Amino acid sequence: MSRREMLRVGSVGLISQLTLPRLLQYQALAGTDKTCKAKSCIFLFLEGGPSTIDMWDMKPDAPVEVRGPFKQIATNVPGTFICEHLPNCAKIANKYTILRSHSHQDNGHTTGYHYVMTGMKADFADGTNSRKPNNVLYPSVGSVISRELGGRGSVPPYINMPHPMTAGGAGFYGAEHSPFVIEGDPVQPDFEVRDLIAVEGIDAQREHRREQLLKGIESQRASTGKAGTMATYYEKARDLMNSPAARKAFEIKDEPAKLRETYGHTTLGQCALLARRLVEAGCRFVGIDHSGWDTHFTCFPSLQKDLIPSVDRAFSALVTDLDQRGLLDSTLVVMMGEMGRTPKVNAQAGRDHWSAAQSVLFAGGGIKPGMIIGATDKNATAPVADPVSVEDILRTIFHQMGVDSSKVYYTPLGRPVPIVNGGRVITDLVG
Fold it and tell me: Considering only CA atoms, which of 285, 362, 360 is closest in space to residue 42?
């Protein structure tokens, strides 16, 4: 209902007890779709902590034990420089923005992952809770978007790949807002989404009879607890298996070989391509977990040969592909890890955990492109001013997607949990 229609209905008394505060609430709700910039978000998570001092925030004048062996190159944005091993990203720097002042105080992998995905500090020590998902109370960013926005197509609103994200669960929101997980590597020639494959030898009529039998059994059970959770999963699986459009969205082999090559024949590259197909089909939030970034030992060969090139091809291809298809304006792309790496190279020729300074990349979804926001000191030790927190990033993502991040929900025990606890929208970043 539009604002004008809401006012008309209110004026003739068709809505009882329409007080001014309630009217303003309805007006805000009516304007939500008009103010949001992004319909979907692709979240590239570089698990382990990317060495952003070697990628996006290089310090060429620092001592060698700080700057490392890599050189910087110019991008197509005057005055912006990034690593020499990111040539494809250098060519499209006018399409994304680098935030160099992200900083927080959690140096743990599992706890930092939990913090980034939920905006809440973990209630367990790092390394003691590695199960997936480990956010048993607080919902992840994808689950919040699933609950607030729902689906807009035949595919699930929230998807993880190529496995469950460690802190990507729904928390107390429940199974309805858990991610649909693609447990498979789309770079493999025999890749297929197993949950979409019908059981061999079971025709449609027999499948229908099985569904009716299952519904009869489920009606005799409690709809809460594990039984209710499993019933929700079964229902989601049935819906997907019965939707040709949904199954079609997962068929990455339909993509031209040349385009698949552009993304790179790596797990990250093919996951990024599949993510584009999924947001094109209506998915709200795709979370991609790309591991291997915990580079404590002899980090520079693996960064140069494997890690950085895979990011260079996947990110640049994704942004370019979305742009060429007219999807970039409506798709927010975010790339980050749970932390950065130490400014000083250690005795094992690697870099250790360093959450005090990290770069985060943003593209599309109403983000101002071609910018550098924030700065770190001469050794990339910490932001020189106005550090950006995890809460700031989450609030900005929700703002761009039209989610009211000031909402508060209550756990089954009655505990109030805000969607984001604090933080601010990064006004320099949004259009």
Answer: 285
Tell me, what's the pLDDT at 143?
98
Domain boundaries, the chain: 35-188+250-418, 194-248
pLDDT at 11 over 90: no
Alpha-carbon gap, residue 362 to 431, rounded angstroms: 12
For residue 374, the SS3 value is: coil
> Reduced to 3 states, what is the DSSP secondary structure of residue 418?
strand
The answer for residues whose C-beta is within 8 angstroms of residue 413's C-beta and 6 or more apart is none
Can you tell me the distance from the alpha carbon of 241 to that of 332, in angstroms, rounded to the nearest whole number? 28
CATH of 35-188+250-418, one of 3.30.540.10, 3.40.190.10, 3.40.720.10, 3.90.850.10: 3.40.720.10
Number of CB atoms found within 10 A of residue 198's CB: 12
pLDDT of residue 226: 54
Tokens for 410, please give them: 């209550």
The total of other beta-carbon atoms located within 10 Å of residue 12's CB is 7
Q: What is the pTM of this model?
A: 0.86
